Amino acid sequence: MPILEKNYWLETVTTPPVQFRGDLPETIDVAIVGGGFCGLSAALALAKRGVSVAVLEAETFGWGASSRNGGMVLTGMKLPVPTLIKRYGREAVRKMYAASLETIDCVEQIVRDENINCNFSRCGHLEVACKQSHFDGYAESAALIQKGATPRLEKLLAFFPGLLTPVKITPVTLSAHGDLAVLSVEDSQAVNPLQPLPLADNPSNPGELVAVIGYPMGILGMVAKSPTAVYDRLAFRRDEVGAANELAALSLIRPSATYGHLGDVVGDKLIYDAPTAHGGSGGPVFNSLGQVIGINAAYIDGFSGGTIGISVEALQPLLEAAQNLPEQKKNMTTSRIQVAAQNLKP
User: Would the CA dihedral through 330, 334, 335, 341 be positive or negative?
Assistant: First the structure.
């Protein structure tokens, strides 16, 4: 059988000739040596940020390893997980693995943004053990991955309608039983124009009208209803914080509202038929008087009448706990927490 001793990728595409445009510039912000995937993507990212870039390549773009690979975009690292943990520690390896997942999003975003015809698709991959030592290594890696790592909250941002930039928020108290938390806005000046919502004084009863305001499908939902030019630019972007920042700058952080009836009240849970979706958690549930009776929390998939909220009565212990924090932490709370606590008191 004849063997083709040539680069498959370069043999199956028509590569446009590179036109050399005179001498190199006298000065440049960044010079990149090597025109492979890494060099070209770095040059592209820098150029989009207004940096002057020169890419120096002795052969042709993609001449080296970038055009001599299997064309696969995979998760993980070359070395086994146990080896990496022994060398660098569990926390560093967790960040490495998270970065490997982000690289796939980065590749997909570049392909879409630059309209690269490379048949990119997310179809998963399968690793098999060819001998016993491979199997033993997979078993050890699986055990370490299952053991997991300690989760850590690194950043929490809030985007409000009408604000052009996000504000940083910090958890103050968390519920041990329900999907509730009291949060503190660090830059209270940024949200001063916003009015606190009135909380209901009396318990709610089945049959009452309710309205739910929130962000069903999160960033994706806001992008979907944005103007066409904005949608075309953000629809396939995987950087949700970046997309949210752009929506905020364009005053497109806009919640959606649905309405329905309160079907049942069980303990601190409200069940109603106002539709919602993933990303809608945390939105206020209003009664017909415009008072907040609960916080949207979940929905039963496949049952349109099974949206679930947590009643405002469940906020009382959290608000009291926020008020009883040590003095150094109490300074983090805002007047809005105090107003909410006063509204809940009989």
Answer: negative
Question: Which domain covers residue 66, as residue numbers?
Answer: 1-71
Tokens of 12: 């199956």
Say what the pTM is. Answer: 0.54
Same structural domain, 13 and 124: no
> How is 80-148 classified by DSSP, letter by letter?
-HHHHHHHH-HHHHHHHHHHHHHHHHHHHHHHHHTT--S-----------SSHHHHHHHHHHHHHHHH-
Q: Residues 245-289: pLDDT tens digits?
A: 889 989 999 999 999 999 999 988 999 999 888 778 889 999 999
User: Which CATH number goes with the domain that contains 305?
Assistant: 2.40.10.10
238 inside domain: no
Query: pLDDT tens, 13-64?
Result: 776 666 666 677 888 899 999 988 899 999 998 988 888 999 988 888 888 8
Q: Residue 89 — left, alpha, or beta (φ > 0 → left; ψ -120 to 50 → alpha)?
A: left
Helix axes 90-113, 81-88, angle to 10 degrees: 120
Q: Tell me, yes or no, whether 247 lies in a domain.
A: no
Residues 80, 142 within the same domain: yes
Of residues 79 and 16, the one with the higher pLDDT is 79
269-272 vs 256-266, strand pairing mode: antiparallel
